[in-house]
Every structure is written in structure tokens, then in C-alpha cells.
């Protein structure tokens, strides 16, 4: 029996997509908003709660996208909503640069406490992940007096100009927007499923780490490099998970040449990978860390945390921004961290990932177009290929599976340099029943499209 025929408990699809109300809103959207901002599902939200999202036509979905990983504690967590309402009664935005406020200080103290490393740290706040990356680069350059920044192939760091320069994927992110920021260089990043020439993981790591010597000879001297920036798991690049050996090797190279290591934890942070921060899996303490997305249950705030002496390199007025660290964002973030700790959601991430791996690892033995299943905590990916022997990416089949899943009530997204990776970023508050129901629908979509 097609598992979609099982009676659903949480999903309730009253219309096909888009429904009548959504169609009217789509007309208004197309008339008033540029085509550039992409949309995963052709409908409009009316209400969100936990791992469920209901649209304007009354269709209720299980959310496996979580606002691209921004909702580890789910839609509208009551404790966060209560904290926001309380903050609204006091003040909205005096601007930290005009009159300071305690939530900003409290959140900085908390991030200094929970981020990797027991050294003295300092934190300041911005609005988005891209802004955090931009400012981490500014701080690194100011502290070291150097200019060059090294990032990695398939990495994604944002859409502002420095962040876009560090990002690897040309389409859709960089196409036609150049020239880009100078003094940026890219290194390979281990993608074990697609290792060239049948290299083992050990061989691929060693090969890439050796390439640092090459780039220091052919492109930029090591003593001119201010920072290396990496995602401890590549998000937009396809949930590509490196080895601890590789991350520790990069750190050793940085230490040898006096280069700062920036960990971009925008998507991996706040419990997503089964640790509060993904760098904890590798026992590596970065010099600077960027955070956003799930820091505040969807409110726009980001952070840069780093060694105190590095963070103090910019002078007064050299970093900041009018809306950075808004009282609402800070209040929400403090509640998010409390939820993650009190409700053991970091451990919950491991159980979610195990359920996804078990389901699709088993299905991989049956369906030849499932090339790879990889998970770290609740950061899960299924790579779709034409066949397991060739490993050729199948972007078209991926799109069909996503469409089928959307029509049957599961919101899920793709990723990867080839657009052939289905990524699962469900809220960590998802119940076992909701997770199983969503996986049932997703499995049925795989079977329907791959037959």
C-alpha cells in the first residue's frame, strides 16, 4: 500500500497547491515583488506551531525545512512568544549605540559561556548571517593586519559582497553580480561521496591539506592570510560532512601561519548537529564564530563571538549597526538557548537524525537513485543520482520528489552544488509521530517519482 494512503494525523491537505486563496496572493506577489526572491512552496502561511505550518487555504503541513534551519525550537514556541510580549511592553528599539539595554549584555554573556573554548571571549550582534560573516572578516583583518581570506569550494556564506565573494556556487548566487571582493581564495573541501579517482577519506583529506602548501606558493603567502573561514558542515553545499582529521588539519595550518580560523555556524549552530555547535564534534576551538538562523526562533539577529583580544581589535565605532542586536532578537535568543538546554533538544537532534538515517538508509538498498544518505545530528541529506554506479546527479528527479512531497503535505528543500540533495531541517521539537508521518510521505514521494 502507498504509505500516503495511510490516514494522516497531522497533515491535512484540503486543496492542491496553490489553493484558491494562495492563487490570489500569488498574483499580488508577482505584481509587486521581484522574481529574484525564491519560494519553496507556492502558498502563503497563516499559522505555525511547533513543526506544523498551516497555509491560507487551511492546508496543514509538516515542516521539514524549518525556515532553512532557522526554527530549531519550532514555530511560535510559547516561551519565546511570552518573552517577546514582555519586551514589547518595555521598549522596542532604543538602539544599542544610543542607549544600551540589558538583554544585549545578557545574550553576549550567554554566548561567551556556551561557545567552544574556555578562553576569554566577547560577542557583538548584527542582523543576518551574511552581516556576521562580513564583520568577522573585518575583525580578522583588523587584528592581523593582513588582507587575504580563504574559503572553500561549495561553501555558502551569504549574499552581500564579501560573503558572496567567499561563496562558491555561481548560479544562482553570484551569476552576473561581479566583480567580487579581492584577496579571496578558495580551497577544495572534502566530499567523500564524490572523492576523485576513488580516493579514500584519508587520502582525500591529506591531498586537500597538502594543497594549502600549493596555494601559499602559487596564490598568496601564508603570512598574508588573515583568516580561513569554513562551515563545519557545508549547508547549501549539500550537507557535506568533513572528518575531524580534516578540521583539525586546517586548524593546525592556521596555527602554523598565524591565521585566524572562522567557523561559520549560521546553519549548524544551536543544537542542529547533535552538539550545541558543530565544531564541538571535532574538538577544535575557532578564533571567531558566526551565528544566526536558529539563534532566535526566526527573529533577525546574528552574532560574532571570538577571543576577547581579537574582538577588541576594531576601535570604537568601527563595528556595529543601527538594528544590530535588537531587544526583541536578544530576548528571543535567551529563551531559545534556555529551551535547548532545559528540554534537551540537542540530544533530541541525534534521535531525529537516527530516524532519518534508518529510514532512508534502508530505502537506499531498494531504490537505485538514492546515492548517499548522510547525517550529523538532525542535519540530514539524501543525495539523488541517476544510478548508484555512475553517481551522476539527478536534479530533475530531485525536483519531482520535492513537488510530490509538497502536494502531499511535507515542506522540504533541496541543496547541493548540483541541486540534487534533499535536505531535512525539521524543528527539533517535532514529535516522534510527526516525524514518522512526514517520513512516510517523503518515502512515498520517492517511490512515486522513482518508479
UniProtKB/TrEMBL annotation:
Keyword Transferase included in the entry's annotation: yes
Entry cofactors: pyridoxal 5'-phosphate
Domain of life: Bacteria
Keywords: Aminotransferase, Pyridoxal phosphate, Transferase
Residues in the signal sequence: none
Enzyme Commission no: 2.6.1.19, 2.6.1.22
This protein's record includes keyword Transferase: yes
Pathway(s) of this molecule: Amino-acid degradation; 4-aminobutanoate degradation
InterPro entries the record matches: 4NH2But_aminotransferase_bac, Aminotrans_3, Aminotrans_3_PPA_site, Class-III_PLP-dep_AT, PyrdxlP-dep_Trfase, PyrdxlP-dep_Trfase_major, PyrdxlP-dep_Trfase_small
GO MF entries: (S)-3-amino-2-methylpropionate transaminase activity; 4-aminobutyrate:2-oxoglutarate transaminase activity; identical protein binding; pyridoxal phosphate binding
Catalytic activity: 4-aminobutanoate + 2-oxoglutarate = succinate semialdehyde + L-glutamate; (S)-3-amino-2-methylpropanoate + 2-oxoglutarate = 2-methyl-3-oxopropanoate + L-glutamate
GO biological process, one term: gamma-aminobutyric acid metabolic process
Protein family (similarity comment): Belongs to the class-III pyridoxal-phosphate-dependent aminotransferase family.
Name of the protein this chain belongs to: (S)-3-amino-2-methylpropionate transaminase
Organism: Paenibacillus silvestris
Upper lineage: Bacteria, Bacillati, Bacillota, Bacilli, Bacillales
Amino acid at each position: 500500500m502507498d504509505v500516503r494512503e495511510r490516514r494522516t494525523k497531522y497533515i491535512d491537505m484540503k486543496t492542491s497547491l496553490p489553493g484558491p486563496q494562495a492563487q490570489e496572493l500569488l498574483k499580488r506577489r508577482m505584481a509587486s515583488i521581484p522574481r529574484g526572491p525564491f519560494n519553496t512552496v507556492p502558498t502563503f502561511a497563516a499559522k505555525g506551531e511547533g513543526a506544523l505550518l498551516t497555509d491560507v487555504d487551511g492546508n496543514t503541513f509538516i515542516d521539514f525545512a524549518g525556515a532553512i534551519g532557522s526554527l530549531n525550537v519550532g514555530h511560535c514556541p510559547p516561551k519565546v512568544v511570552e518573552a517577546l510580549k514582555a519586551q514589547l511592553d518595555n521598549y522596542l528599539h532604543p538602539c544599542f549605540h544610543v542607549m544600551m539595554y540589558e538583554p544585549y549584555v545578557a545574550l553576549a554573556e550567554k554566548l561567551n559561556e556556551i561557545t567552544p573554548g574556555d578562553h576569554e571571549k566577547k560577542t557583538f550582534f548584527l542582523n543576518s548571517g551574511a552581516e556576521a560573516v562580513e564583520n568577522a572578516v573585518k575583525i580578522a583583518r583588523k587584528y592581523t593586519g593582513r588582507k587575504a581570506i580563504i574559503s572553500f569550494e561549495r561553501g555558502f556564506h551569504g549574499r552581500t559582497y564579501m560573503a558572496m565573494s567567499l561563496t562558491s556556487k555561481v548560479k544562482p548566487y553570484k551569476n552576473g553580480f561581479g566583480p567580487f571582493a579581492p584577496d579571496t581564495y578558495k580551497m577544495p573541501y572534502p566530499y567523500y561521496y564524490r572523492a576523485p579517482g576513488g580516493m579514500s577519506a584519508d587520502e582525500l583529506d591529506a591531498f586537500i591539506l597538502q594543497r594549502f602548501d600549493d596555494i601559499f606558493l602559487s596564490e598568496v603567502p601564508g603570512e598574508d592570510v588573515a583568516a580561513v573561514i569554513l562551515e563545519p558542515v557545508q549547508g547549501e553545499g549539500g550537507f557535506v560532512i568533513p572528518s575531524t582529521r580534516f578540521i583539525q588539519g586546517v586548524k593546525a595550518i592556521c596555527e602554523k601561519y598565524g591565521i585566524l580560523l572562522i567557523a561559520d555556524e549560521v546553519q549548524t549552530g544551536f543544537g542542529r548537529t547533535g552538539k550545541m555547535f558543530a565544531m564541538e564534534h571535532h574538538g577544535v576551538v575557532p578564533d571567531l564564530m558566526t551565528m544566526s538562523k536558529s539563534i532566535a526562533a526566526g527573529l533577525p539577529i546574528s552574532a560574532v563571538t571570538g577571543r576577547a583580544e581579537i574582538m577588541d581589535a576594531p576601535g570604537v565605532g568601527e563595528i556595529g549597526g543601527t538594528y544590530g542586536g535588537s531587544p526583541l532578537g536578544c530576548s528571543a535568543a535567551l529563551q531559545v538557548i534556555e529551551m535547548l538546554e532545559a528540554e534537551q533538544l540537542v540530544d533530541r537532534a541525534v534521535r531525529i537524525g537516527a530516524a532519518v538515517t534508518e529510514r532512508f538508509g534502508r530505502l537506499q538498498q531498494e531504490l537505485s537513485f538514492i546515492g548517499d544518505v548522510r547525517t550529523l545530528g538532525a542535519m540530514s541529506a539524501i543525495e539523488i543520482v541517476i544510478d548508484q554506479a555512475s553517481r551522476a546527479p539527478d536534479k530533475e528527479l530531485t525536483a519531482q520528489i520535492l513537488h510530490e512531497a509538497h502536494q502531499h503535505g511535507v515542506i522540504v528543500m533541496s541543496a547541493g552544488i548540483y541541486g540534487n540533495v534533499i535536505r531535512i531541517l525539521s524543528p527539533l521539537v517535532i514529535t516522534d509521530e510527526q516525524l514518522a508521518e512526514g517520513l512516510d510521505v517523503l518515502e512515498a514521494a520517492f517511490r512515486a517519482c522513482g518508479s
